[in-house]
Amino acid sequence: MLSFPGEQLAAVRRYEAAGFRAWPAAAVHYDGTWAIRLTAGHPAKRLNSVNPLDRGDVANIAERVERAARRFYSYGRPLTFRVSPLAGPELSSWFDQQGWTRFDESLVMHLPLAQAQIEGAIDQIPLKDIGRFVSASLKVQGADASLRAGLSELIGAIEPPTGLFAMERAGEPLATMICVHDSDLVGLFEVITHAAERRQGHGRKLLLSALKWARLRGAGQAWLQVEAANEPALALYRSLGFTEVYRYHYRRPPPLSGA
User: Fold this and answer.
1) Which CATH superfamily is domain 111-246 in?
2) Which H or E run contains 52?
3) Most buried residue, 47, 125, 132, 173, by CB count within 10 Å?
């Protein structure tokens, strides 16, 4: 784990806190400064992971990991750590020594809205009907209908003002996204274009409309999370002016022998 100056760690803390508010887990427990987030109704890793929030909090790792594992087992979720720059290097070394898998590296990116090229963006009013948005989102993702209740509950639990954006053609959803306005920040989540409609500019148009909505509401900075392996999305965000702030990844223990 690389060292990070205090200024950068302060920025990481700000985005991590905004992410927790924008994507709220159903249950949050703390073991020291490890935030243990669990959500029975939705399988997303961000909602079902241990998030260490202080680089110096690395005492009794094995004992605390075992306690977290019991919580995850009770929810039927695989024990998963989300490792940001706020996690201490000793914790990453412990994972390595124990043979834990590292996967799904992601970037947190930001864009000052004063620099966003939104002059020609379409004025789009966010949907008010959560049910309609959830239907569109699941269809665009090609996700199972069993996620409907969990996604609806998740969106309903978001406390900051939220814009639910959907682009449709003849009643069929093409792209969807969630825009969470939290003080000066606006977070962009679940930015998805239907597989059959990609590379046609739908995602760009929807993003620009959402950024315009956010700037009109007084937000000063947009941010988002994207998997490092998602090259098309990265290319889109970079073309809009987003730049990397920091990265995080996930860790899971090796399977039990004989499992």
Assistant:
1) Gcn5-related N-acetyltransferase (GNAT) (3.40.630.30)
2) strand 49-52
3) 173
The domain limits of the chain are: 6-107+248-252, 111-246
pLDDT in tens, the chain (259 residues): 445 566 789 999 999 999 999 999 999 999 999 999 999 999 999 999 999 999 999 999 999 999 999 999 999 999 999 999 999 899 999 999 999 999 999 999 999 999 999 988 899 999 999 999 999 999 999 999 999 999 999 999 999 999 999 999 998 999 999 999 999 999 999 999 999 988 889 999 999 999 999 999 999 999 999 999 999 999 999 999 999 999 999 999 998 744 4
User: How many residues in the chain?
Assistant: 259
Contacts of residue 205, Cβ cutoff 8 Å, sequence gap at least 6: 121, 122, 167
